[in-house]
Amino acid sequence: MSIDANFNKFTNTINIQVFGQFDFSSYRFFRDVVETIPSSIDLIVVDLAATHYIDSSGLGMLLVLLHRARLYHKPVRIINAQAQVSSALKSANFDRLFRLHEIKTTAANS
Description:
Blueprint: E1 2-8, E2 13-22, H1 27-35, E3 43-47, E4 51-54, H2 56-71, E5 76-79, H3 83-91, E6 99-101, H4 104-109
Parallel strand pairs: 2-3, 2-4, 3-5, 5-6
Antiparallel strand pairs: 1-2
Helix pairs in contact: 1-2
């Protein structure tokens, strides 16, 4: 498990990538990323292409991210979720809270 966050100054977007399992072991790293997101950001993108498992802790962390984004009135996009992860997101009705995208390019353009 690892988490990587990159800022794109041209699109004023932060891209967060989660690798491996998105579970309680990710909490500290994910929290550190979320706490450092500036209010001036235009879009937050969570790329789950390399995430092969998500549990209730991972879902909870996405809710923490959403809460912070809503404080700043910023959108959050979840992109590239593999089938198992996408199924977990939809089962938890996260498709009602987040915009889920298959490919990265559509997230920044919508």
